[in-house]
Predict the 3D structure of the following.
Amino acid sequence: MDATVTLPRSNPLVLRLRYGADLDAGDRALLADLARSRRSLEPQQDIVRAGDRAAGVHLVLEGYAFRYKLIDDGHRQILGLLLPGDFCDLQSIVLGPSDHYIAALTACTVADIPQERVDALVFRDSRLARTLWWATLVDESILREWLASMGQRPADKRIAHLFCELLLRQQLVGAAGERDCPLPLTQPMLADILGITTIHVSRILRDLRLAGLIRLKDRRLHIPDVARLRAFCDFDPTYLHLVRRPDLEAAEDVAGVGS
Amino acid sequence: MDATVTLPRSNPLVLRLRYGADLDAGDRALLADLARSRRSLEPQQDIVRAGDRAAGVHLVLEGYAFRYKLIDDGHRQILGLLLPGDFCDLQSIVLGPSDHYIAALTACTVADIPQERVDALVFRDSRLARTLWWATLVDESILREWLASMGQRPADKRIAHLFCELLLRQQLVGAAGERDCPLPLTQPMLADILGITTIHVSRILRDLRLAGLIRLKDRRLHIPDVARLRAFCDFDPTYLHLVRRPDLEAAEDVAGVGS
DNA sequence: CGTCACATTGATGTCTGTCAAGAATCGTGG
DNA sequence: CCACGATTCTTGACAGACATCAATGTGACG
């Protein structure tokens, strides 16, 4: 619960957005500047509440956060995990009040960014526009994968798939090793992510442990053989969109980016 | 399967995007112009294939389309339905090759729009930028609701919730009445949407019919008492973001929209 | 008229949920 | 340092939802 997620040396936002576009020093400076006003949050503290008028855009700098919805007054469905470098509610500048909740999972540092600043970046500078939009689209892509997982994968592979994703996403921001990463998720949280009960999470984790696929200790996840776990759950990282595409440069020219 | 979805009198794209921003005549003309090159598709014909280099952006003008993923070679998970006025792959101008498939569900008319044209609109004109981005963000919001539904609602309420959503989304583009709308989904399709088997879909539909909540005839869905069905499945349309927000105008001023 | 996909129903099995009860862990305060 | 409560985590017994297997009926279409 209080496992501290390592702070990457560089700005996690810049680390993440490398995959969105090739940013120059000026772009990076603009991005880094967004993270100036920092705020610390307790675990479980809400960052965004559904229906609230958006005061600004929030960015996770340290720790984990998560999105969730409440269904039928009592059931909570976790909709996604937010790691350092992820925007919580970039969409609010367009959509307005959020339709879901966002809360700190671990102790967190977040940046509060005034709407207008992001707004100006998004709708004036086309390369940054592309990059910030890219960030929301990757979110959407991850949601599609989670939905596919929920619908078609049995619970054990669903957990395994989630673990593969978390290892990789944390590696992106320098918060994980080759075969291990922080995993500050309690079993009740995992249950809400996977749409199953805590009790089942416990049993499945035991089975995965017995199969030698994972090891959990001190709120860290160890994966002895990443390839084996990936094969087990049919993990294909394409949906994270981590490859720079050669054809994007051409598209950027068309859009008239040439600084 | 071959039920023809009514063509709204006005351009469905313009009808849909009304909720994204207040567009002037010039904006509407630009949007309408996007839909000039039309193409007809057979049911089940793929519009976008995962991994393919994106040739352009696709827009549904008539009929239904759907997104899906294939898991473990054989299991298909439907990730969303695309109705007239919905972009299939607006995200491709930023993300590149799609990470999922998109196919026609009924006979469809789609517009093929060259990447560059959308690209120019998105990254040059800030009001249209906001509007097109809005469209993708609503997609994302619907995905979150589907995921929540999948994780926390039992199958019967999941179907009911889907039906409420479909009735409303079709009303938006003038393709539905007060209490009925086209429903060109076969039971195997519904099964893939809900993550259950065809057999179960059949039984659940029977139960809903016996409960007097729905009637299905000639590929149309009739909902005798919409309020009752909404109550049954806890349907709250907030996630569709159909309200214009007063504070957006202010934000638009900041972004320098005032044409 | 035969084929094929869709739709319906029954019998049975399995995954996951519910109920119940301990055990382990952790933060807090005495 | 220990005690305490509060979460977690774990395990068992049982029930229910949904899957699988099988069979039959229906309708569209060549």
Observations:
- The beta strands of chain A are 38-41, 46-48, 56-62, 65-71, 75-82, 101-104, 108-114, 180-182, 215-217, 220-222.
- Residues 1-2, 154-155, 196-197, 199-200, 203 of chain A lie near DNA strand C (CB under 10 Å from a C1').
